[in-house]
Amino acid sequence: MANHDIHLTVRKGTVHALCGENGAGKSTLMKILYGMQKPDEGTIKLDGEQVSLHSPADAIARGIGMVHQHFMLADNLTVLENVVLGAEKLYGIGNKARAKIKEISDAYGLGVRPDVLVEDLGVADRQRVEILKVLYRGARTLILDEPTAVLVPQEVDALFDNLRELKSEGLTVIFISHKLGEVLSVADDITVIRRGTTVGTAVPSETTPKQLAELMVGEELPSPETRESTVTDVPMLTVEGLRLSATDSDGAVRTVLDGIEFTIHKGEVLGLAGVEGNGQAELVEAIMGMRDPDAGTITLDGAEITHLATRKRREGGIGYIPEDRHRHGLLLEAPLWENRILGHVTEAPNSKGGLLDNKAARADTERIVREYDVRTPGIEVTAASLSGGNQQKLIVGREMSHHPKLLIAAHPTRGVDVGAQAQIWDQIREARREGLAVLLISADLDELIGLSDTLRVMFRGRLVADADPATITPEELGSAMTGAASGHLEHHEEGTPPGADEGEGKNSPESEPESSPKAEKDQKNSPRNSPKNSPKREKKSSKNQKNSGKREGGDEK
Amino acid sequence: MKKIDKNKLILGLAAPVLAIVAAFIITSAIIGATGKDPFHAYQVMVDFGSKADSQVWIINKATPYYLSALAVAVGFRMNLFNIGVDGQYRIAAFFAAVVGGYFTLGPVAIPVMIIVAMVVGAIWAGIAGLLKTTRGVSEVISTIMLNSIGASLIGYFLQDGRLAKKEGNLIHTPYLPGSAHFFEFPTQTKPIYGFVVIAVIAGVAYWFLLGRTRFGFDLRTVGQSESAAQASGVSVKRMVITSMLISGAMAGLVGMPTLLGVSYNYGTDFPTGIGFTGIAIALLGRNHPIGMALGALLWGFLDRTGTQLEFEGYAQEIVGVIQGVIILCVVIAYELVRRYGLKIQQRKVGEELAAQASKSDKAEAAA
Lengths: 557, 367
Prior knowledge:
- The structure holds 2 protein chains of 2 kinds.
- Chain A contains 18 helices and 21 strands.
- By secondary structure, chain A is of the alpha/beta class.
- Chain A has a 7-stranded mixed β-sheet with strand order 14-17-18-11-19-20-21, with helices on both faces. Chain A has a 6-stranded mixed β-sheet with strand order 4-5-6-1-7-8, sandwiched between helices. Chain A has a 4-stranded antiparallel β-sheet with strand order 10-9-12-13, covered by helices on one side.
- In chain A, α16 links the parallel β17 and β18.
- Chain A is globular.
- Chain B has 2 domains: 73 residues; 254 residues, ABC transporter involved in vitamin B12 uptake, BtuC (Orthogonal Bundle), CATH 1.10.3470.
- Helices cover 76% and strands 3% of the residues of chain B.
- In chain B, the strands form 2 sheets. Chain B has a two-stranded antiparallel ribbon with strand order 1-2. A two-stranded antiparallel ribbon of chain B has the order 3-4.
- Chain B starts with a helix and ends with a helix.
- At the A-B interface, α11, α12 and β16 of A face α1, α8, α9 and α14 of B.
- Chain B: It is found in: Cell membrane.
- Chain B: It is a multi-pass membrane protein.
- Chain B: Keywords: Cell membrane, Membrane, Transmembrane, Transmembrane helix.
C-alpha cells in the first residue's frame, strides 16, 4: 500500500483522528510512525526534532506506543506478566512492577487488575491492558489502530473516557478509525486519508458525519434508507417453534434458541437486532444447516429444510454472507477464483457433472470483479491480499451470482469502508426489488433500521420484540436489545430523540449488554455529547511526514 | 496478470533450489567435519548413481516410495496426518499375498490381489477415520497405534501352520503362482517393475481427483479451512472418513511392486518403513504429483549411492544425515518462500491499486 504526500501535524495533548476507507493507507502510515516500515521519502519530526525510526524499539524509546487492532497478549499469562513481558528492565517483574501498573491504572482511570489471567478478561479489558502496556513503557504518544472495531457501544464510551483522561494528562493520542460518529465525538482534530494521501483536515465541531464521509470517499454518500416497500405476501422462509441447544465449553447443555417463529416474504428484509451473543449466530447456523435444531421446522419456498445438509440448502437457493468472512466465507490463501467456487462447487458455472470447470469459474470471477467493483489486480491473487471491503464485495458478488431466494446477511458491512458499504447496500436493495428475501443481522442499528422492512429483536435466544423500522429510533431498539422492553415497540414522541444518528454515527446508547464484558466504571458522559475541544496548549509537537511510495515501474519481479 | 504468473513460477522454483543449495552446503560441512572430502563423496555418488544398473535400481525403489508419498499426501491435503501408511501397506500386502497364495485365481489373480490390498488398506485407515469422527481421537495417535496392531496381527498369522510356511530360516506365505507375477520391462541389466505404470496412473489419478473434481475441491477446502468448508456445505466428518479411505487404499498399493514383482510372497523379510519414507517424500514434493515423483527418485538415488559411499570409506550414516538435512531445508525453505510470496503479493496488490487510484486522482485533482 503506497503512501505519498502525507502531511500530518499532531498537536501535543490532543486526540487526533485519522480517518479513511479501508485500504486508504492508514495502517501503512501508522506502521511508518511506529518504525515498522521505512518511508522512502519525507521526514518525521517529534517535538520539533527530526527523527528516523528504524524499529518499534526506536519508536518506543522516543515515547511512541501503538495499540494494535488485534491484541498482542498471551492468554495464559496474567496482566502483570503480559505488561512486563519484554520490558523487564524497567521496573523488574515483581512488586515494583505491580505498583507501577497500579499507579498508571489509577492515574488514567483504566481499572486494570494486575493479577488476573488475560484469558479471563473481556475484549474491553484486554484493550485497556494493551494501553497500559504502552504507557508502562513510557509512551507519551499513543497510536490506536481501529480501537473501537471490537467494542460494543458502552465499551466505546468507556474507552473514550480513558482517552480524554490521557489527553488531560498531556498525552497525545492518534486514533485511527473509519467510524465517523466516533471520530467526531472524541477527536480534537481530524485528518482524512484517501488513496494513500492526506486529502483534508476537519474540525469536529464544524463538521457533520456526512461531510466527513464524503471527504473520505470523495463523492456523495448514499444512506441505507429504503422506503418504497417491495414486500409481497408470498412466504419465502418460515421458521416455526425452533429450538436449539448447545454444549458450552464447560460441558453444560444450554438452550441457545427457543420458540423462534418468523416468516420472511419475497421482497422483504427482516432485520434482526440484538446484542451479540444472544443467539443470532446460532440462528443463522441453524438456517444454514450447520447446526441441527432440536425442535421446530424451517421451510424455504414451500419445502421443508429443517434437517437438510448445508450444501442442499445452498443449492436450494440460500445465499450466505457470513459474520466472520475469514473463518466462514473465504479460503484466505487460495486465489480469488477458487474463492468464487467456494460454497457453490456443485453449481454452474463452477462445475459440470463431478468435474470442476476452472475456466468458466475464472471467467465468472472476472465478471464478479468487474461488476461488483472488487479492487484487485487480478483473480490469481490470494483472498488474503485484498482489503476487507474488497473481500466482502467478492463474497456478495459470489452469493448474488447464484440468484438466491433467501440471503442471510450477517453484519454485511462490518469492517467495510464507506464506499463498499454503499455498494453492498445497493446490491441488497436491488435484489430485494427482484423478490429476494433477506435476513439481515447487524450491530449497526442505522443500517438495520434503514434497510429492513420488518424488525425483530433477539434477546437470550428468543425473539422478544418487533418494531416498525419506519418510526423506531435506535435508542428504542437499544432498550429492547437489553431486555428492558418487549412486545411491539411503539415509537414514543416525547421530545426529540437524543443525538442525530446520521451517516456513520452508530452507538446504541443506554443499552446494557449483559453478556458482554463490561467496564467496572460507569460511563457518565456519553461521547455523543458535542465533542469538546480541549483548551489549546502552547507547547506544540509536530510530526510532519512526507513519504512517497511510488515505485519505479511498479513491478518487483 | 502474466506478471504474477511468472512470479509464481519463480517463487515455485525458488523454494526447492534454495533447499537443495542449503542442504548441499550443510552436508558438505558435515562431511568435512568428519575429516573426509565432501566433493569426492558427491563425485562417487553421481558416478555410481548414473550407472545403468543403478538407474534401474533407483526406479524400482522409487515406485513404492512414490505410492507411499501419494497416500500420505491425500491426507496432507486435508490436514490429516496419516502416519499409519506403514501399517496399512504391510497388512494390505499380507492379506493380498494370502489371497494370491491360497486361492487359484488364474488370470484375475493380479486384479483381485490389488483390490484386496486396496480394500484392506482402506479398512485399516478407515478405522482411524471413524475413531476421529465419532470419538475425536487424533489420527496421528490412532494411525501409529494401528501400525503396531497391524504388525502384531501379521506376526500372529505369519507362523508355520497358520497362514505361512517355513522355508529355511524364513517364514512366508505360499509363493504366488506364475499368473500373479506382474509384467516387467526388461533392460540390459535388471528389469524394471511393471508396477511403475500403476504408480504413474496413481499419480495422474491423484492430480485429477484433487485438482479437477468437485470432490477434490471439497477436500482441499477442508484442508485450508474447516470452518469455511463447513459453511460452504462440505460435511467435514464424511470428508475425513472418505479421505482416510482413499489414503488407505493408496497405501494398499505400496507393497504391491515388491509382492508382485520381486518376492512373490509376504515373509518376515518384507520391507518395512516405506510408509515413513512416504511422509518425507510428500513433504519434499509438497504434495505435488510431479514434485513427489522427483522426491521419490532422489530418495532412491540417495539409498543407492549411500551403500557405495561405505566402500569409499565414508560413514554409511552420512546418507541418512543428508536425507534429514534435505527435509529440514525443504520445510524451512518452503515456509520462508511462502511467507515472502504472500508479502510480495500483498504489497503488489496495494501498489497496483494505488497506481490505479492515482490515475483517477489526477482526474479528480483537476476538479
